Amino acid sequence: SENGKWKQIYETESNTKLSLGFSHDGKFLAVVDNQSIYFYDLELNKLDKVFTYQPTTKNEYGLTEPVFSENNKFLILVNIYYEGNGYLVYDIENNQIIPLKTFAYAWGDKI
User: Fold this and answer.
1) Which residues is 32 bridged to in the sheet?
2) Cα–Cα distances in Å, from 75 out to 8, 36, 84, 94?
3) pLDDT tens-digit profile of 57-75?
4) Rounded to an integer, what distance in angstroms lies between the CA atom of residue 43 and that of residue 97?
5) How far is Cα 41 from Cα 80, in angstroms, rounded to an integer?
């Protein structure tokens, strides 16, 4: 908030789930809405769409829970599936998704 007032940085439809994550240096806020990744520059007050994820299966429901790596070069994301979730890494410098070979079923993990 600025001077005790909230600032709107993103507008979404009511059925879109948003997930947020701050960079470790406090300069950026990651905003994730199912398939799109945005970075909000807290110093410049500017929101930029940086990546749109294309699902690889029809059972994928979207991205959530962005977490920056300690060096702020990667963004770890949860990819929600019908039967559980998987994990992806967004390489910020190279603008690409790196899938991790893990999957968490609703009833346990598979690595």
Assistant:
1) 19, 37
2) 23, 13, 20, 12
3) 666 667 778 999 999 999 9
4) 26
5) 26
